[in-house]
Design brief:
It contains 20 helices and 41 strands. The protein has a 17-stranded mixed sheet that branches. It has a 6-stranded antiparallel sheet with strand order 34-35-36-41-38-39. The chain has a 5-stranded parallel sheet with strand order 22-23-26-30-31.
């Protein structure tokens, strides 16, 4: 579906820059100060809006207009009989402050190997005022009778529309960013004009439509018409007459033509009003001297074709906390931050030093920062049970830096979204994922044991498989990312991105798959949406890059050629999934994998679509950049569903929950869970650090869970290794073991050797690591029964398997402050992992607002109720819980179950049966 175009950014490629700013700004500065983007609100003092009024939105919601203090609106659910009308407020504006404003600016972008920075360039038009002219509820009879106002808002009714629909309309006004420059008519501003610099010069009608979408959601849309402008220079009789001149008589004509050449653009879209009422023909500008024509052309390039920024500004409480925004790795709560929503590579270090400094120095922005993520989402929920998400795929920035407001900057000229109603975070997530999508129930094989990440070829896999059998490790699959073969590059061994098995590297491939399957173990592989030329690969049977190029299904550059993008040590081309032929062709590639017996794969990448790409659909590449991860997941999901349907044959097999293909992705956006079966968190550093390492893997897990990503996990031990003489990040044995303990309580328990296997400790490195891996895999298997329940709940309600405590204790101030320290598994298990080197104890926080207590799975000790001796409450009676120092030696992570819980009792019993309960 083509999306609305926005101003194309001026993109600067930084792929080959050798020395770069090692401390780039995390979120680029805005061209509009907060005050500029939230101008005053006005309304007619003698109109109907002079009095407070309630307006229905569907049958369950109402909008209240309050003219006091400059005017404001608030949206709330309809209170029950005798209920407090303020208790259900879901969204409200700031009195006297515009809640819709428009502007224009140039857009600039920097790009380097999957890292992107979008920012405002020069501000052209800044917001000046919003006026509210009319608020009206439209019923079905109004619409059928022909409501012109709703048609102006591009509203389309259907049989499912829940009338009444509410319309707010008026005008937004702007002024030139530089009042000392020429007026919009092209004439230079004199002293009197500069004195009137605050006067609006451009105005446009806007429409805000509010529509009840379901029992818990109100949809909103903002549409802004093409602007009009007026000029009173010709009527300004106080202006001095032009000085005498000996220039030819064509000079006054030239002056008039300059007005035309600078202002009258695309007359089908923009209207020009002059006080004399006479139109000026742009075609006459051809009579101007060449120098003046060149000056006008330059000025024309600087003029905005349309508003390309929309701001939404509304109220927030000072003590309100904000959660969500997709899979975030550094923060759980965002009050006080500007949060960009742009899919991209997360970076190396993300602020942890010294690795971020080094990464940024050698490759532009490749270090990342606190905000960079593979899977952002324009969604949040707050501690006040308010929640909003935006639709569409434009670049968004959520500005939460002012304590009394939220301001959303949209890089586009329309906005759509939803305001959600719920009494708890679980209500809000269920409502949100009901619209944006939820994953399917996973086949049970993927969650029944360890997924062993291996490289090295057939012999290496068989050797490690034998070791795992000797240690009685429950294994569900071998994941073999190097099935395509390895190539030597300047940075080491990398994969051939040509999605077919390398028969030399994996000799007897089909025999290996068959033998593993006979032992109850599946085979998983790797692919991504990119291709490389493989002329140098002697044993390639197919040259997929050449095939795709010939078919014309690759993303193109401005010259219409395949867009070759630098990626580490080689260039790659990207499949254009806006082209249906690309989708069909790649499903054939996946079909070849499945026919050989492969049961699943990592569907890597998806975050790197260039911001100046040309696509088959013709859509705006910035919006397509955010949409591409969803397209990529959809291709994989459609194939997996089609394969299962073809392979089932009859209902009995189709209902077998053991069967089915599984793929997992790292890149995503708002609706990725509709298509992705499973997420993983991408490339964490093999470190203990907070922004990119074991701690960030927990933050990503929990923040994603609060953002509609219910099934997620990380690489055990991390991925990104740096092994240089002066900069070393290598996976230690202790880090690997502690990461195993964390991931034993995620939906999938999967290892990865990392990008430099020889520099990292592996689960098969020695007898200690093998024994610990076996122990953690058995702990993982001990709660399989509960995991099956939680996976079904994720598919039905969108609730995550691993949960931040905020989901179930939202009013607990201590819980609101937690990041990576601990998490829930469902509602019945509490995990407090060791995430610091050399630690053997943890500080656990036990929320007891529900009156329950928690039992330690290894000792049976109970925490809760009367606050066990030696453990005190947190705060002064305001926090319903308490802290305790708990032992957590290697192999015995601090894990608790609800006292008296059938789930907890069965889990402890299964641990005993697995012979892993001795302490």
């Amino acid at each position: 579906m083509p999306l609305p175009a926005t101003a194309k950014p001026k993109t600067t490629k930084k792929h080959n820059a050798r020395l770069n700013n090692h401390f780039p700004r995390a979120v680029p500065a805005a061209a509009f100060r907060n005050g500029d983007a939230a101008p005053p609100l006005s309304f007619g003092p003698f109109s109907k809006l002079a009095h407070a009024h309630d307006y229905p939105v569907g049958s369950r919601f109402r909008l209240r207009w309050d003219p006091s203090l400059g005017g404001a609106v608030s949206l709330a659910r309809v209170p029950g009989s005798g209920g407090d009308p303020r208790s259900g407020v879901m969204w409200e504006t700031i009195p006297g402050v515009a809640f819709v404003s428009a502007a224009s600016a140039t857009t600039e972008a920097d790009e380097c190997r999957g890292s992107f920075a979008l920012r405002d360039g020069r501000a052209l038009l800044v917001p000046e005022r919003q006026s509210v002219d009319r608020i009206k509820a439209f019923y079905r009879c109004d619409f059928e009778a022909g409501a012109d106002s709703l048609r102006g808002a591009a509203f389309e009714a259907s049989d499912e529309t829940r009338f009444p629909v509410l319309l707010i309309t008026g005008t937004v006004s702007t002024k030139k960013a530089d009042p000392a420059s020429s007026c919009c008519c092209g004439l230079r501003a004199g002293r009197r004009a500069r004195a009137r610099a605050g006067k609006p010069v451009l105005s446009a009608r806007y429409w805000v439509v509010l529509e009840e979408k379901c029992d818990t959601q109100v949809a909103f849309s903002v549409k802004i018409a093409d602007y009009q402008w007026s000029c009173d220079h010709a009527a300004d009789t106080s202006s001095p007459p032009p000085p005498a001149s000996t220039a030819p008589r064509t000079h006054p004509i030239s002056l008039r033509l300059r007005l035309a050449g600078r202002v009258q653009r695309n007359s089908a879209k923009k209207k020009k009003l002059i006080s004399s009422g006479s139109p000026v023909r742009e075609e006459l500008s051809s009579l101007l001297p060449p120098a003046e024509r060149a000056a006008e052309a330059a000025d024309e390039e600087q003029r905005p074709e349309e508003f390309n920024r929309v701001f939404l500004t509304y109220a927030s409480d000072r003590d309100e906390r904000f959660y969500g925004f997709g899979e975030q790795f550094s923060r759980m709560e965002f009050k006080g931050r500007r949060v960009p929503v742009l899919v991209q590579e997360q970076g190396i270090g993300r602020g942890d030093q010294p690795v971020t400094f080094a990464a940024n120095l050698v490759s532009y922005r490749s270090g990342g920062n606190w905000s960079t993520t593979y899977a952002p989402s324009p969604f949040y929920m707050t501690s006040k049970m308010r929640s909003v998400y935006l639709e569409g795929y434009d670049y968004f920035i959520f500005d939460l830096t002012k304590p009394d407001r939220v301001q959303i900057q949209v890089y586009g000229n329309t906005v759509q979204g939803r305001i959600l109603q719920g009494d708890s975070p679980t209500d809000l997530i269920t409502s949100y994922t009901g619209s944006t999508g939820r994953p399917p129930v996973l086949p049970r094989w993927i969650t029944s044991g360890a997924v062993v990440g291996m490289q090295g070829g057939t012999d290496a896999v068989r050797r490690v498989w034998s070791q795992l059998q000797e240690h009685d490790v429950p294994v569900s699959a071998f994941w073999l990312q190097d099935w395509v073969g390895q190539r030597k590059t300047t940075i080491g061994s990398q994969l051939w991105w040509n999605w077919e098995v390398d028969d030399d590297h994996y000799a007897g491939w089909k025999d290996l798959i068959r033998d593993l399957r006979c032992g109850g173990v599946r085979t998983m592989t790797y692919c991504n949406p990119c291709l490389v030329p493989v002329r140098a690969k002697g044993n390639a049977r197919r040259h997929l890059y050449e095939e795709a190029k010939e078919l014309g299904i690759l993303v193109r550059d401005e010259a219409g050629e395949p867009y070759m993008m630098p990626n580490t040590a080689f260039d790659v081309a990207m499949l254009d999934f806006t082209n249906p032929e690309a989708t069909s062709w790649f499903k054939g590639i996946l079909g070849g994998m499945a026919e050989e017996g492969v049961s699943g794969w990592m569907a890597d990448f998806g975050e790197g679509l260039p911001l100046d790409a040309r696509l088959h659909s013709g859509e705006d590449p910035v919006a397509a950049h955010n949409r591409y991860p969803e397209l990529w997941a959809r291709v994989n999901r459609e194939f997996a569903d089609e394969w299962k349907s073809r392979s089932s044959g009859h209902a009995a097999v189709e209902d077998n929950e053991e069967e089915g293909l599984v793929f997992f992705v790292r890149a995503g956006f708002r609706e990725s869970s509709r298509w992705a079966m499973l997420f993983w968190e991408g490339d964490q550093m093999v470190s203990w650090q907070a922004n990119d390492g074991i701690k960030s893997s927990v933050v990503g897990l929990l923040s994603g869970g609060l953002s509609g990503i219910p099934l997620n996990h990380s690489d055990i031990g991390g991925y990104c290794t740096v092994d240089l003489p002066l900069l070393r990040y290598r996976r230690s044995e202790e880090l690997l073991m502690r990461w195993m303990e964390v991931n034993a309580f995620t939906v999938v328990f999967r290892t990865h050797e990392g990008n430099k296997p020889g520099s990292n400790c592996q689960f098969y490195s020695n007898s200690r690591t093998l024994a610990h891996f076996a122990r953690c895999a058995k702990i993982y298997r001990a709660w399989e029964f509960y995991r099956i329940m939680l996976v079904k709940e994720a598919a039905e309600k969108g609730l995550p398997v691993a949960r931040h405590l905020f989901l179930h204790y939202p009013e607990d101030r201590r819980v609101q402050e937690l990041t990576y320290q601990q998490f829930l598994v469902g509602t019945e298990m509490l995990v407090v992992p060791v995430l610091d080197k050399g630690r053997s104890t943890v500080t656990a926080y036990f929320p007891i607002s529900d009156g329950g207590s928690w039992r330690h799975v290894w000792t049976g000790e109970e925490f809760g109720g009367g606050h066990r001796s030696g453990h005190g409450s947190v705060g002064k009676g305001t926090v319903p819980g308490f802290e305790a120092e708990v032992a957590a030696s290697v192999g015995y992570p601090a894990v608790f179950v609800r006292a008296g819980s059938p789930v907890g009792e069965r889990f402890v019993r299964n641990l005993r049966d697995e012979n892993v309960t001795t302490i």
